[in-house]
Structures are given as C-alpha cells and as structure tokens.
Amino acid sequence: MASEPVKNFNQEMEFFVDMQRCIGCRACEAACAECETNGEEPMIHVNYVDRAHSVQTTVQVCMHCEDPACANVCPADAIAKDSNGVVHSANTSLCIGCSNCVMACPFGVPKKMEAAELMMKCNLCYDRTSIGKKPMCATVCPSGALYFGPREEIQKKRPHSTPVNTFKFGNQTVNTKVYVMMPNGSTELRVH
Amino acid sequence: MFRIFYSLNRKALINATIAMLLAIALVYVGSRDLQNFDAALIAYLFGTIFAVFGIMYRYSVWLQRPPTRLYWRRTWKFVFSKRFFPYLGFVIQQFVKNIMFQRFIYPRGRSRWWGHFLLATGCMLAFMVTIPLTFGWIHFTLQPGTLDIYEAHVFGFHVAEFELGGFIAFNAFHILNWCSLLVIVGAVLMMRRRIKNGGLIATQTFQDDWMPLILLQAISVTGLGLTFDYSFMQGKTFEFMSVTHAITVILFLVWIPFGKFFHIFQRPAQLGTNVYRKEGARLGMAVCPHTGHEFATQLHVNDLKKVTKELDFNFDLEGGGSHLDYSPEGKRAALAKAQFAAREQQGQFFG
Amino acid sequence: MPGKGLSAYELVEAIHRGEIKGLLSICFNPIVSLPNNNMVREALEKLEYYVAIDFFLNDTARHADVVLAGALHEEEEGTGTTAEGRVVKINPVVTPPGDARTDASIIIELAHRLGAGDKFPYKKSEDIFNELRVASKGGTADYFGITYEKIVKNYGVFWPCPSLDHPGTPRLWEDRKFATADGKAHFNPAPYRPPSEPTDKDYPVVLTTGRVVSQYLSGTQTRRIGRLVDPYPEPLLEIHPSLAQQYGIKDREIVKVKTRRGEAEFPAQVVTTIRKDTVFIPYHWAGPKSANQLTIGTLDPISKMPEFKVCACQLIPTGVQAPPSSESKAYQSA
Lengths: 192, 351, 334
Known about the structure:
heterotrimer; A: alpha/beta; Alpha-Beta Plaits; 5-stranded mixed sheet; two-stranded antiparallel ribbon; about 15% helix; B: mainly alpha; 3-stranded antiparallel sheet; 5 strands; elongated
C-alpha cells in the first residue's frame, strides 16, 4: 500500500536543527501554518525550555525517525514512512485519534487535534520538499536554528559543529533523518 | 507461487473462514434454503462472501498488532465489566455523532464533511438494502388475490405490505437511486478537494485516494443507468448497464479488505479510544515531571510503556522512570536542555 | 513646510490643559500605548470633537465622536522607508472591505468638505509622494531624486538622493562628510539622569514595562489573532523568586500593583530571569489589564520618549490564585 506519486525529492538537501539558536520569534510557526499539507495549522513546536529559570526557547520539527515509534504504536496503521524517509502525518481515514503517537514520540512531535479527533504532525512540508523546495520553517528562521540545505554548506557555515542524528533516551537509541547540530566530535546526543 | 500460503496468518485464516462459512450459513437460513434467493444476484453474492472473508482476515491480522490488541482487549474487558453501564449513554451518543454523522470530520473542513457524510450515508443505506437482498434475506411477493399489494418478507417472514404505485413503493424501489445521488454528489465534493487542495495533491495516490472515489462514482452512475434504461430506453442497454454495474460493484467488494474502504471497519475503534480516555481520566491523570501539569491518563502512559516494550522500544531511564513519563513539552525541553548542556561544555554556542 | 508640532504625549497633555479641542487621529491608540492612561482618558473626555481613523476599532476609538474605517497597508498604495533608509514601494494587493477607504482618500475628502480642497489636489498616491520629494529637497533625508519609477526599477532607493540622476546612498557617510556644523562625526555622551520617580518607602519596587513576542504595539491587530493570543493571552507580572518570597507571592497568584497614578491586578509569573528589585508587565492590553495605568508620564527632554521603563510601585498580594488564562478575554478592553 506504500505506493506514492512520482516526485522530485532531493536527498542532497538535509535538515539541520540547532535548537540552541532558537530565539522564540515563532516565525517558523507562522510559516508552518502556510504549509498546505497541514490545513493552516502550525505543526512546528516552539516553547520555553524552563521559563522559571531561563528565557531559552526550543524549536522542534519532526525528526523523521528511521524506525518511527509513532508508526509502531499506532493501532490504526495510520502513520507511514515513505521511500524518501519522510514520516507522514496520520492518514485521515485511518486515524482514530487515540494519541498513542503523541505520547510515544520521544521528541514530543505529533499533535492531537481534539475537535477533529485526528493526529497531525510535521511532514517535512511534503508539498514543498517533494518538488525540491525547502520546508517553510527553514526558509524563514532568522537565527539559523532551522537549516535546510546541502551538508557541505552547513559544514562551511558552522565549522565548530557536527550534525548528529543518533539520540539516546535512557536505554533507547533513535536514529533520525533530521540532524541536530552538536559540538565537533559528538556522535550522539544523550537526552537522559 | 505457493509462497502466499506459507505467509498466511493462521489465526486470521481460521477467523476469516469461520466468518465466511457463517455468512454462507446465514444465506441458507435467511433465504429458507435458497428458496427466496435471487439467482440473478449470484455474482454479487460471491463478491460479498469474498469481502466477508477478506475483511475478517485483515481485521484479524490488524488485531494482532500489539497496540491494536491492547486496545481491543481493554475495550472488551471493559464492556463486560460492571463499570461499563454508566458509559452506555456516552457510547450511544458517540455512535450517533461520530459514526452515523461523522461529526469529527466537520472541524477538518465543511465541504469535506458534507462530501464524506453524503458518501457514507449513501453507501451505508445501500449496504442495508443490497446485502439482505443479495443474501436472500428480503424478498417481495404479490399478495395473493390482489394485483397491486406487495408484501415484504424478511428471513421468510411477512413483515410489511404496501400498495404498488404508492409513496412507500416508489421509495422502496428507488432507494438505491437515492443512494446513488448522495454518493455522486459526495464523491464530486471529495474529488473537488483532491483537485484544488495543494496539500492533498502533494500526498495523494491514485490507488488509495482516487480509485475509491472513481469506483463509487462508477457504481452509482451505472446503477442509475439501470433505472434510466428501463424507465426511458425500454431496456435497450440493459445488458451493458447490468454487466458494468456488476463489475464495478464486485470490484468494490473485492477491494474492501485491501484498500481505503477498510477504514469503514476500523472507524468504530474510535468509540473505544474515547471510552478508554474517559475511564482513564476517572482512574487518574499522569503529571509530567518537567511541566508539573497533567497531560494524559496514567492508564494510557502505563499501557504505552508495555506496548513499546512489546515493539522492542525501551525508553526506561537508568535512574528509574521512563522517557514516556514526560509530556510532549517535557520531552522537547529535555532534548533542548541536553543539547544546550553539550554546547555549554564545548564552550562554543555558535559556529 | 509647517512648523514643528507637539510630540504624541505633549499633544495629549495639551488636550488635558484644554489648549486643544479637536483631534483627528490615524491608527492612534493612546489609551493603551501612552503612560498614565487615566490622564489620557480624562484628556479624551475633554475633547470637543474627536475623529478616529483606524483599520480596526481600537480601544481609544470608544471615545471618538466619529470613527472612520481606514485601510491596512496591504490595501493602499504608497512607499515605506526601511530602517536602513531604503525607500520601497508598497502596492495594494486587496481592496478595503465594505465602506472602509484608504487613509489618503479619507483625508483628501475631509479637506474638500472643509473647504481646503485646493491644498489637497492629489489625484493619486504618487502626487503625494512628489510633494514629499519637494518638501525634503535639500534636507538630510533628501527624497528629491527618488521617483516611483526609480523605486520600482531599482527595487528601492536609499536616501539621501538629491537629484534625479543620483543613484541613492546605500551607505551613509562613506564620504566622511557628516551632517554636523564642522562636518565631523560627534560622540554625544549622555549625562545620567535619574528616573523622575525613584523608589521609596511607600513605593519600594521598580516597575518596568515592555513587550512580548506575540503581540505588537497596542494590540489593535494582534489581540484579534488567535494564534498570537494563545502563546501569551494576558499580561503577567514577572517577579524574581526572592522578591516574591519577601511578599509571600506564589506563581500565578493575583498581585495588585499600585503606583501614584493607578492600580491593577496581574497574575504573578515567578522567574529568575528578572532583577530582584524590579517587576515587569507587558503593555499591549487595554482596560483593567493595562500596564500603562501605572506608568509615569515624564518625558525624556530630547527624544520626548516617556519613561515607560521605570517608575515606583508597591505590590499587594491578594492570596487568590489566578484561573487559567482565558484566551477569549484577550481582546476585552474594558
């Protein structure tokens, strides 16, 4: 059932996130709401990390896991990863709104739209990336927290950083399509 | 070539076979040993029996997935417990609202709801008529000694009678036409969305999104064509109309277990998840250690820990607890803090 | 050229003194944006005639005798000058809804009806810009050489641009001739001037006001947009834990903030990201949630900017926990 339209997805272009650069301006949120696949609902998350002690904000897009926990825990088979590695928003005809994915995603990405009893999530602006364009959020981020482009380009711009796509949550290792910028020499980001 | 038999799911195969045999038995019983069976519908009967088999097979395979199995078990255990009774009203209300009227689609878009509601109502009504007809459960006879009183029989029992040419008769004989009209309007609304909406254009596939709509259109148009033919064309194209209609319907039936139409059978699970959430809330909410706010039911968090383990995920933390104890916001903050700490240690936040 | 007028706050003060009796304002919401707004309200009540032009009905327009529906810049042709001094063309992409009209057409028609039509003979937006070109000729920000045609062709023109064949000045002072008497750049050390209202025994805490990311100015536009309201639906009182502890204030407890000009209640947000002697309230809201009920109307002598950033206040904890922020009340102005 994993047939998909023939598209022009550019695998040379990759997503690099440096949430530490996020200034909380929410430009990405406004841009995300323009993505035609979400129906005017922003799917990107911007929130304070710990407002009581810091003004640090963080930004979170879907990391597009190699083995997505959200799809695994979906009782309705509503979440699918395509051959480009993009993990799609729930299939609207299948999703039963159980929120399993919302709670199982180690990155806290899927959103449950309560009124519609439907899960929605970032799908890498599939309407844009599937025809070789950048995701909306990455085109507007003023601080480089969200960056979509060729790897050489980001390495030139950030010589002291290494993109990492291995995450450790306790005993669980998660590999993703989207990278997080880490200090040089890092091979993984241990969250807990 | 025989590989398919090795990869068959035994449990599902048994369930599907039982369901199929049960359906056949019901055809025998309901049609009084085929006495009331309409032989002209034999092709439709085979299609339907295959659909029963296929739907049961896929449903059984589906239920074997850990998360689905968990919900399935939780639901039935709860339904047969004492605590279910207070939820009966809620379940009925949800059924009317979300299954019969699909209200949950309305917030996703107005025309989308109209489209889906018309499609669903048309299909459901048509199923309610055609399946009993095909199975020989319903048949009509002329009342003995009259020329204009029709009798309806269900399972061979006389249940109603009506005058030919009357209001009831007109609607009873045309109900499938009304269904066709609903489906045609609904499918046009849905097709319009698929042509105009950029998001749908980017993600849709012919097989999963267009074919079901085209199939429903074809069934409805050829169905209407049958009536058109005998009403206005003296049956000149009857052969063609009945064959194309039969082909499209049988394609539809055979396709149900494989394609988008299977969601009709998955959707009722939504009722279960709503009851599960309500009952879970009664038992107690989980509080995120980061935000300090309630974010889900504790029952759900605990179940999810079990399910993820069955699926070979292990989010247990070394110091006890689990990453799954955190709310989505808590998880995002944890990631950001960890990345910030790594950056801080390096001493270089930028570049 | 007409002479120099009054700055915004001086204007309101003059109304309050009874020196100005009529007002025509465009996109002006002083009841939210100016300090000591109880005085501003008194001033507005004293006006004999007040006409407000705005694209949305703002909180101040409640005091107007006549409200005229104006236009957003998406609805009107004109120019804008960016922070880097680039004059850019603005083109309408939509027409004003209903009876709303472009601000320029409102003013021109008013002038005609008041018998001053000969001074407003403009047929189109470009005619108005051409007057600006003439008016600024020879000044520091010289627009004379900038025309609509040039702006469109060059994707914007930087001022100063003194003549039609001048390309504009993307970077100022590259010729090292500065617009001072001696042609040199001057450092202007600003002597420290203490705030006009220092803290004391009765008002021991510094109150500062400012903005939040999701709101813009007096909120006439942004308090109407759900997605901007959601992240920060109501003004909170940011307070340091040590100051909060001193008063026994808990997170989200409603605190009455009192100054010599007014008082208002805000839920506390206890954060370590603020000075221990200072509390902060964002100013974008109107009515009982307005921070500018508390602020002081003293102006900086040079810039005429009011002292929004410092005045003295006292904190009175109420012991009541604030209910969850009600997003639907965000636009409530009274």
